[in-house]
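FORM 7B: Structural annotation worksheet

SECTION A. Query
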Amino acid sequence: MDGSEANDCFGYSLTAGDFNGDGRDDLAVGAPHEDTGASEIAGAGAVNILYGSAAGLTATGNQEWYQDSPGIGGTAEAGDLFGYTLAALPHTTITQKIYLPLIIR
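SECTION B. Predicted structure
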């Protein structure tokens, strides 16, 4: 994310899970009105991941995801609101988990 701006709605949605498989809880934070990408697409939305450490959540190594990020389906468009809703769903086995960002259109 490019920094706090009026109406980004950072924290509008939250979910926790072990997203990097290190055994520590991480936090996904939605910012559905974030302007994203090199061309700053208005309201395309983004999700920021804060990873857990021995001392708790840390911004070190955090990641930003939006629809034009590698591995994320779709194309960022104005008003997509990516990150409006988040869910962390455990997989049926103990060692695997599936995490899905939900998109409202």
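SECTION C. Observations
The longest strand covers residues 56-65. The chain has one domain: 13-90.

SECTION D. Sign-off
Analyst initials: ____
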